[in-house]
Specification:
Elements (H helix, E strand, L loop, with lengths): L1 H12 L2 E5 L4 H14 L4 E6 L6 H14 L3 E4 L5 H8 L9 H18 L5 E5 L5 H4 L2 H8 L3 E3 L12 H10 L6 H4 L16 H10 L1 H18 L5 E3 L6 E3 L1 H5 L6
Helix pairs in contact: 2-8, 4-5, 10-11
Bound molecules: iron/sulfur cluster.
The site of iron/sulfur cluster has 13 residues, from helix 5.
Length: about 260
Amino acid sequence: MARQASRVRRGFAARRHVVQFSGGIGSFAVAVRIARRYGTRNLTLLIADTRVEDDDLWRFADDTSRLLGVPLTRVADGRTPWEVFRDVRFLGNNRLAPCTRLLKQIPCREWMEQHADPSDTLVYVGIENTKRDRARIPAIARNWRPWLTRFPLCGKWEPVRTKEQLLEEARSLGVAPPRMYELGFAHNNCGGACVRAGQRQWRHLMQVLPERYDYAQRQEEELRQLLGEVSILRDRRGGESRPLPLSLLRQGEPPC
Ligand code: SF4
């Protein structure tokens, strides 16, 4: 039985293992687990550069690469989310964000098409084991087809770990976690200025990284000149939905 399990494991190790490495702590934890389980010979850390990531994301990614001895495989469309919104004439928001598809999914898929045979490759995604994140699994798996996906942090045998435990795991391996978590952000993506984020995160960005909020506000204003009454956020008080530009949020509208 033990010999059979070891044969199965050797068979898996010979496959290509692609970790969709976002620079977040979940994908770090997944990369470490896959490296421990199957070794690093066939391991790829695939990361998409949106050109607006926090600088410390790249420090964290480089530290992870050094820890595992696996180079980063960096893909990029070349545009920022703001440039995408101008090109597609649509400002992303929490219902529809074309930047995800154009800056992350498509460049990663293009790389996969050139380098990873679907019959011999597993894709690992570092979503954390929360009810909200688990609900995303079917859509993520669908988007990655024909490649097979695995979600190691949500596996049956993996104890549920909090984000703080995952951050501690990185520290214990000598890798300082991305500073965005210490700054109070739940995710380390697009420098905290994600168009899918809600009012709470944008207010937080205004407080802790004001220059980044200013930049996003200017970009949104330019897009409003181009596209009209659009905004990342909506004000839904009173049962009505109205645009809530970052300039108004700055003035304290709507009240917390
Ligand atoms: S993290 Fe947010 S802003 Fe960045 S690409 Fe994804 S949806 Fe767009």
